[in-house]
């Protein structure tokens, strides 16, 4: 569940001027402080998102990265064991096995 920041619009209570609350995306944002009942507003916060930087990080997270090497030939730089290193057009046996990486 995501964490949201709220700010007291009047005098802060024991939670402080700015406080955090964890609730589902579908939940209605708070308009009142859960502790003192005073009015609050939801703040827009910076998100901390780190994208994978290396091919092995991509592979470990279930991604497949193909790099074009020639007309109709792609190198699978995230190949897992048993997968072809090169994907060739019109050769389905060279395609990565997505059943290993795609889950419900």
Explain what this protein looks like in three dimensions.
The chain has 104 residues and is mostly beta strands. It folds into two domains: 40 residues, no CATH class; 46 residues, no CATH class. 6% of the residues lie in helices and 25% in strands. A hairpin with a 2-residue loop joins strand 4 and strand 5. The longest helix is centred in the middle third of the chain and has 6 residues. The model has no long low-confidence stretch (mean pLDDT 88).
SSE blueprint and pairings:
Elements: E1 3-8, E2 18-22, E3 40-42, H1 55-60, E4 66-70, E5 73-76, E6 86-88
Antiparallel strand pairs: 1-2, 1-3, 4-5, 5-6
Q: Number of domains in the coordinates?
A: 2
**End-to-end C-alpha gap:** 19 Å
Find the structural class using helix and strand composition: mainly beta
Strand order of the largest sheet: 2-1-3
Strand content: 25-35%
Q: What is the H-and-E element order?
A: EEEHEEE
The biggest beta sheet is recorded as:
3 strands, antiparallel
Q: How much helical structure, as a percent, in the residues?
A: under 10%
Strand tally is 6
Q: Any low-confidence stretches, pLDDT <50, length ≥5?
A: none
- How many helices? The count is 1
Radius of gyration: 24 Å
Q: What do the pLDDT scores average to?
A: 88
Note the overall shape: rod-shaped
